[in-house]
């Protein structure tokens, strides 16, 4: 296989991105290489492709322990034999991993720099063939960077101790000349091929807003973003708490992340965000190093960060899937005072002498000045960023706050045309020829696959790949391979699950989703026809939705609040969703809940919408919760047993494994049906589904 075959086979891409090929060619040709690329520019491809083609093992040295498991999961999911060795493993797991590594079972091994110094690892490295050493976050070797790690200084000694010097690749997103020179010297790179590229992210929109007050400005940027994934960065823990509370109170599913929380809570909150259980993460800059989430639609900086490096790295977490993302910075003059204070009073780095400390501080202040210039000067923001990172930006980009007049600043609210431009631009994205119903179904398949394979959904495939599937509509593995991001391994592993959904939609004879039909019938059973009940009472949507919830809860054998909260029902009254996409906008209704219960609620809403149209009641107030208007619920709830579908409509689990259970559950099988099919107690099924995250 040549490099293109490798790229296609494992990663499903047809061509390399800018700069990647130069790096790949250098490393394959035995020449060291130094890549200066921002996060998200695809730097991992630069060493993963050669790693698969070179004869021996590639070691990837990375300080980001939290990221390793995900990177390895992503590689394994693409069929690449990979492993990681770090302090997260137990001694026993470490032994097993090393034993397999000795046997040559891995092509790529991620390793924390501290590990290089252990005798067992050194012995291993000296007795197998190491073809390449890739050093990630290579700026950590430089004493002039903020992330200096003394242990990085010993990487070169480790490499020298190997029987044969492997080719070395170093990667960093920090681009100052001094740091670059330091990397070459400290890692003892030999005449490295240098690539500085990929800093332009055409799908990202940049704007600096200079508000009088931050909170209203933040809410303006967030307006209409319920349901979208995003990050709000604040500079202090206190602000994180305050902003998170504010967002929760405004109906956003927000979570928080800062160094003051327990490890356990940080881990939980991060996972909630990663798995789309919450939409907004409010965080200090402590958040993000371990995050590789592709569908972040916006990154808002509540304060000005202290350097362009930090800003661009954080802002760059938006739009990793290639879809539009917005990076909005709220700048106020007092940010300068705070930042200077933090630089002058920060914890000293114990590894540096007093003179070196002073030099580092001077450089920090210099970096701060560049950041201030970004926020305060009149210039194209994208061009400024590209020039800062050593790339050539030319004139105005035509798509940043400066070039368009802004979407969120004061000018934007006062100035209608700027607003209109935005709406038009957003509409253009929405009108892209993608069947949104199909997209939602594919997304649910991905969620289910992720649960089964125990990986985050983006490891299965990106949103961009799903969009591509909607366009290509593959129904054979050959066609699936034409979907960008679906290589041979992924197609073999996950292809059929996606294709069966597409086939069902393509074939006109195929019945509409069994789930939809069934749940619609359920809802009909749960709520009486408008004509059959008291007119006033049926107008009360909240009460009707509550009845649906109660009926669903009864069938699932869970408490009603496990189906959804009152706040979620209120959200439904406001949004009045009649499609799954709209339902996903309702806070508290994630993908699984929408798939499972959405149709039941929507059929009631649809019926009411229809009823309203027929009666053409003038000035009908929007339905809102009015608990005072109690309706005797008991009489309304019709037992579900009568409405349960014949088993032929749902898929019953053939075996008790995770995949079968997930498939059955998503097809609409009840817990009772699944229990009977497998001959095990319902409680046990419920427990398994809870563990799979399908019920709550
Ligand atoms: Zn511009």
Largest sheet: 7 strands, parallel
Hetero groups: zinc ion
What is the CATH domain class of the largest domain? Alpha Beta
Please state how the strands of the largest beta sheet are arranged side by side: 3-4-2-5-6-1-7
Binned, the helix content reads 40-55%
| CATH homologous superfamily heading of the largest domain | P-loop containing nucleotide triphosphate hydrolases
Q: pLDDT below 50 for ≥5 consecutive residues: which ranges?
A: 413-432, 509-538, 613-648
CATH topology (fold) name of the largest domain: Rossmann fold
- Total domain modules: 5
The count of DSSP E runs of length 2 or more, i.e. the number of strands, is 13
What is the beta-strand fraction? 5-15%
The number of helices is 34
Shape: globular
Provide the structure class: alpha/beta
Average residue pLDDT = 80
| Distance separating the two termini | 46 Å
Evaluate the radius of gyration: 27 Å
Oligomer: single chain
Q: Which CATH architecture of the largest domain would you pick?
A: 3-Layer(aba) Sandwich
Describe this structure in words.
By secondary structure, the chain is α/β, with parallel strands linked by helices. The protein has 5 domains: about 5-195, P-loop containing nucleotide triphosphate hydrolases (Rossmann fold); about 205-405, Rossmann fold (3-Layer(aba) Sandwich), CATH 3.40.50; about 415-530, HRDC domain (DNA polymerase, domain 1); about 535-635, Orthogonal Bundle (DNA polymerase, domain 1), CATH 1.10.150; about 645-690, Arc Repressor Mutant, subunit A (Orthogonal Bundle), CATH 1.10.10. It is built from 34 helices and 13 strands. The chain has a 7-stranded parallel beta sheet with strand order 3-4-2-5-6-1-7, sandwiched between helices. Strands 8-13-12-9-11-10 form a 6-stranded parallel beta sheet, with helices on both faces. β12 (about 295-300), α12 and β13 form a beta-alpha-beta unit. α2 (about 20-30) runs parallel beside α3 (about 45-55), α26 (about 540-555) packs across α28 (about 565-575) and α33 crosses α34 (about 680-690). It is globular and about 75 Å long. It binds zinc ion. Zinc ion binds near residues 382 and 396.
């Amino acid at each position: 296989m040549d490099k293109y075959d490798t790229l296609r086979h494992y990663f499903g891409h047809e061509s390399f991105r800018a700069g990647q090929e130069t790096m790949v060619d250098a490393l394959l040709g035995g020449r060291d290489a130094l890549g200066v690329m921002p996060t998200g520019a695809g730097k991992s491809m630069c060493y993963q492709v050669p790693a698969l083609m070179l004869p021996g093992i590639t070691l990837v040295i990375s300080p980001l322990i939290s990221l390793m498991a995900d990177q390895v999961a992503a590689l394994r999911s693409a069929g690449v034999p990979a492993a990681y060795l770090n302090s997260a493993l137990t001694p026993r797991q470490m032994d097993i991993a090393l034993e397999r590594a000795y046997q040559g079972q891995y092509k790529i091994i991620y390793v924390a720099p501290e590990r290089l110094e252990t005798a067992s690892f050194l012995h291993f490295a000296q007795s197998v063939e190491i073809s390449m050493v890739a050093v990630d976050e290579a700026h950590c070797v430089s004493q002039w960077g903020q992330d200096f790690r003394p242990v990085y200084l010993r990487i070169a000694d480790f490499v020298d101790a190997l029987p044969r010097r492997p080719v070395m690749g170093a990667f960093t997103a920090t681009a100052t000349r001094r740091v670059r020179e330091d990397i070459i010297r400290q890692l003892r790179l030999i005449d490295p091929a240098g690539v500085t590229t990929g800093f332009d992210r055409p799908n990202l929109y940049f704007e600096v807003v200079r508000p009088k007050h931050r909170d209203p400005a933040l809410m303006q940027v967030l307006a209409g973003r319920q349901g979208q994934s995003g990050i709000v960065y604040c500079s202090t823990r206190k602000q994180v708490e305050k902003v998170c509370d504010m967002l929760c109170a405004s109906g956003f599913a927000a979570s928080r992340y800062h160094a003051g929380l327990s490890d356990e809570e940080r881990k939980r909150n991060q996972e909630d965000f990663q798995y789309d259980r919450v939409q907004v993460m409010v965080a200090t800059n402590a958040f993000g190093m371990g995050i590789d989430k592709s569908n972040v639609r916006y990154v808002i900086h509540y304060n000005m960060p202290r350097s362009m490096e930090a800003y661009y790295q954080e802002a760059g977490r938006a739009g990793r899937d290639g879809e539009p993302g917005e990076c909005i910075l709220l700048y106020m003059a007092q940010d300068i005072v705070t930042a200077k204070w933090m630089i002058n009073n920060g914890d000293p780095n114990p590894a540096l002498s007093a003179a070196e400390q002073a030099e580092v501080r001077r450089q920090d202040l210099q970096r701060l000045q560049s950041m201030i210039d970004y926020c305060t000067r009149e210039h194209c923001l994208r061009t400024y960023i590209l020039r800062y990172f050593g790339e050539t930006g030319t004139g105005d980009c035509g798509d940043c706050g400066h070039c368009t007049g802004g979407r969120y600043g004061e000018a934007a609210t006062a100035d209608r045309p700027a607003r209109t431009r935005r709406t038009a631009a957003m509409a253009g994205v929405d009108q892209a020829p993608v069947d949104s119903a199909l997209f939602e179904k594919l997304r649910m398949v991905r969620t289910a696959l992720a649960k089964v394979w125990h990986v985050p959904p983006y490891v299965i495939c990106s949103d961009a790949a799903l969009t591509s599937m909607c366009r290509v509509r593959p129904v054979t593995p050959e066609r699936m391979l034409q979907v960008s991001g679906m290589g041979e391994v992924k197609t073999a592993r996950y292809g059929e699950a996606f294709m069966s959904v597409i086939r069902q939609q393509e074939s006109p004879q195929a019945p509409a989703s069994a789930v939809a039909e069934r749940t619609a019938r359920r809802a009909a059973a749960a709520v009486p026809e408008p004509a059959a009940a008291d007119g006033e009472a049926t107008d009360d949507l909240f009460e009707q939705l509550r009845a649906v919830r109660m009926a669903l809860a009864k069938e699932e054998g869970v408490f009603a609040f496990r189906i959804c909260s009152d706040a979620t029902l209120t959200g439904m009254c406001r949004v009045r969703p009649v499609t799954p996409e709209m339902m996903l906008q309702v806070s508290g209704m994630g993908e699984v809940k929408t798939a499972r219960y959405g149709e039941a609620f929507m059929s009631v809403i649809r019926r009411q919408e229809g009823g309203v149209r027929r009666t053409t009641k003038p000035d009908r107030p929007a339905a809102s919760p009015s608990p005072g208007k109690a309706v005797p619920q008991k009489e309304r709830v019709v037992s579900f047993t009568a409405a349960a579908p014949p088993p032929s409509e749902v898929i019953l689990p053939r075996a008790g494994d995770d995949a079968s259970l997930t498939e059955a559950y998503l097809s609409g099988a009840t817990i009772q049906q699944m229990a009977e099919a497998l001959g095990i107690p319902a409680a046990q099924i419920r427990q398994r589904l809870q563990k799979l995250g399908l019920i709550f």
